[in-house]
Amino acid sequence: MSTGWAVVKLNMDDILLMNAMSKVSGVDAKDCMEANGMVSFLVKGNEVGKAIGKGALNVKKLEQSLKKRVEVIGYYKQPEEMVTKTFDVEAEEVNKKKGKLIVKLSALNKKKLFSNSGRFKRVKELMKRNYDLDLIIA
User: Fold this and answer.
1) Which residues pair with residue 32 across a beta bridge?
2) Mean pLDDT of all residues in 4-20
């Protein structure tokens, strides 16, 4: 039986970060990554709000205890939803072929997505780690 979750290799630091998320929010992260003082947690899409907390209280608590910025990204059955929901954009077309996820966006939605290039890089990395797909925006 497939759970829809890919196998991700985690180190001890990742596990400690994920335990902190679970302790503060009650949500188990599927993956996390740390880069440039930012910790990105990947949680089930239907648990993003709970992980963030009312008034972003859980994120604020994590930021205080970890002394790093924190973001929460949703994991969905369809990988393109990670892009559309994280950046609040609408895909005009989606194609999966040869290990690539090609998401076609309007010029306005591309601008919206690329306005946060750091987050885009993190989502791209999480996409590769969890769906084994290279994300391409067309």
Assistant:
1) 41
2) 78
